[in-house]
Amino acid sequence: DRAALPAPGIVTNPGAPPRTAGAGKPTRAPVPASVSASVEARLKQLWAREFDVDVAAIAPDASFFELGGHSLTAIRLANGVREEFGTEYPVARFYEEPTFRAMAAHLEGTAADEEGGGEAAAPDDRPARAPLTAQQSAFLTRHRTHPRPQIYNVAMRLTLTGTLDVPALRTALSELVARHEALRTRFVEDGDGEWSQEALRARPVHLPEEDLYARLGSADAAAEEAERLAGETAAVPFDIEAELSPVFRLMRVDRDRWVLLFVLHHAACDGWSVSLLLRELAALYGSEATGTPHGLPAAESLPQPGEYARWQREHSRTQDKGRLTDYWARELKGAPYGMPLPLDRPRPAELSGAGDVILFTVDAETRADVEALARRHRTTPFVVTAAAFGRLVAEVGEEGPDVVLGISHANRERREFEALAACTVSSFTLRVRGDTATSFGALVDQVARSAVGALDHAAPLRAVAADVSAVLGTEVPDRLPLGFQYQSSLETEVELPGLVTAVEDLAVPGARSEFNLGLIPTGGVLSGYLEYSTDLWDRSTVEAWTEAYVRLLAREVGEALRGEG
Questions:
Q1: Which of 158, 212, 294, 329 has a Cα at 20 to 30 A from 494?
Q2: Contact assessment for residue 88 and residue 53, using Cβ atoms and an 8 Å cutoff
Q3: CATH tag, 37-107
């Protein structure tokens, strides 16, 4: 779902450090003579719930990666530990020692007196206005300065086949908007040029049914008209200074088929939020259509964007900025920041925002090989596929084997924000040093080390660029031209009673960045997209690179698994 991505991208599975060279098995962490039964039992419940297995299946040597863990799993488990044990568990530890035994040993004896901090405010204490989140502020600036601000629209088409209860759908959408302030927020500027966010009062959703089938007389004509209207609706820019309310549009295209358009602004959502909203919509519709409880948390208990903004500001205030500067100065010393790929035409003084998207598929066999190689190197599919992208850029590029990528991650630091509908994604920089790797396996190890270090010091480049520039004595840009994403948080399977539902992304023409490649695990394969600036490249050029990436990924991963690379 490309539309659920920011520039340069959204939710990624950041990587992990590789095994020590020559090591057959991970080194076990020291284990106390006896881990208390209480700690073990409580922790097993967390693991069993997260991996959807029986508690009995969680053996002491159960491996986080063998059970299918990735960075989002690590975030949720760390959040669960904070809630259950009252202590922090660094996400990086999952990659340094990924066994249940090691986690239990770490937690044994820890006191539950660490401050949780950033707790959600009680609903009655929520002020009417709040500061902008860092993400809202960034999108406000981008929207107001981009020549094609509609590219920040997140547009989805839900095709509903079967028996649709239209009044129940209206009620469900109205309840969804009432539950999440992000769907009824506006940005307000005060007299000093400072912006804040204000949640507006919930109103019933107006959702007329446009019966294209009756008007046009045939399903084919109705489907064609719905396609045109969908593209037209998705491409209307929001008035970001007025209100960020979503756009809903319902069209009947056959006797038993409807199309529901759902358009949001990226300042209000990310891939995690899209999945959350679709799940809640399904639950609310099912409840209204069948008269059964929806089973969702009470609306009053949900976190809201204003709370996240206040927590974010406090977290930023207490963050060790010197630690971040020192790390990124070391990591980015001598790094190349320009566009390494050859251009089809000279770069204009200013990009127009015109762009295109190429869709492609990595087949099931290659996906399985990617996941197998990731397990072998105690890392994630993100690391393997990013290493392959770095190698492709080095092969076709003009700047050598050192490649710098902009990566995004879910950034759901605390459990209380897992149910937050908002854009929380943040980014970090990933350096792929192909010149130091003698094989693809070695490159995966290098990228894994860089990824876990970057995740442990995650910060948008714009947040550290000035300080790092001062340390290095060279200019560090606040954005990178190359982006890469591996989305694992985007789940668009929706079950509505009496209906077969298909969810599709409606990509708005344009480019948020110069060159951005993403992969989404779906249905046993990897669905890919490549968004690029048409100011710089022809479609045929980028299509050739996309095909080359698919071939390179299959070849390099296959050879590495056979011990040939």
A1: 212
A2: no
A3: 1.10.1200.10
